From TrEMBL:
This is Phasin domain-containing protein. InterPro entries: Phasin, Phasin_subfam-1. It comes from Ralstonia wenshanensis. The lineage of its organism: Bacteria, Pseudomonadati, Pseudomonadota, Betaproteobacteria, Burkholderiales. Residues 5-101 form the Phasin domain.
Length: 169
């Protein structure tokens, strides 16, 4: 029979996994928020300059020149934003994959131990319930392994998802 201590170890393992994955996700979101705030601040500043230049134009040629001076840096800024966005996404995905890999083996081991204890403690005549439980735990472990394999089969780099011109594939 599973003791309270063993149950605590299982819950602690699951909590550590959840916390590691959550920490990676929150760090990625924080970085994206910082990137968006920086892009907004820069964009507003450049837009203000462009509007002042355009408002001070004496003819259509000066107005168009003011617009053109704004468009090139804006395009470069969008390209840089895309590169940073992809980099943050890839690093966050890789961090989550590493966290799952690091903690997944321990959680699966604990679930296997729990299943063995419950099967050993089953009363006579409960073979159908035991077989159902074993199948359920087996499917749970297989699903967890498949998800982990999908997330960790290939650690990505930003260049894997970014074209040479800085746009996402």
């Amino acid at each position: 029979m599973m003791t309270l201590e063993q149950l605590g170890v299982l819950q602690r393992s699951q909590l550590e996994t959840w916390m590691a994955v959550t920490e990676e996700a929150v760090n990625g979101v924080n970085r994206l928020i910082g990137l968006n705030l920086q892009a907004l601040k820069t964009g507003l500043g450049e837009t203000e300059h462009c509007l002042h230049d355009a408002a001070g134009a004496h003819d259509a040629g000066e107005w168009w020149n003011a617009q053109a001076r704004y468009l090139q840096p804006a395009g470069e800024r969008v390209s840089g934003y895309t590169r940073n966005f992809v980099e943050i996404g890839v690093e966050t995905q890789n961090g989550i994959a590493r966290a799952l890999q690091r903690h997944g083996d321990e959680v699966r081991r604990q679930w296997g131990f729990l299943a063995e204890n419950l099967v050993d403690a089953a009363p006579p005549g409960a073979e159908a319930a035991v077989n159902f439980f074993k199948a359920s735990v087996g499917l749970e472990v297989a699903a967890a392994e498949a998800a982990e394999d999908a997330g960790t089969s290939r650690i990505l780099s930003p260049s894997d998802v970014t074209a040479k011109d800085g746009t996402a594939h």
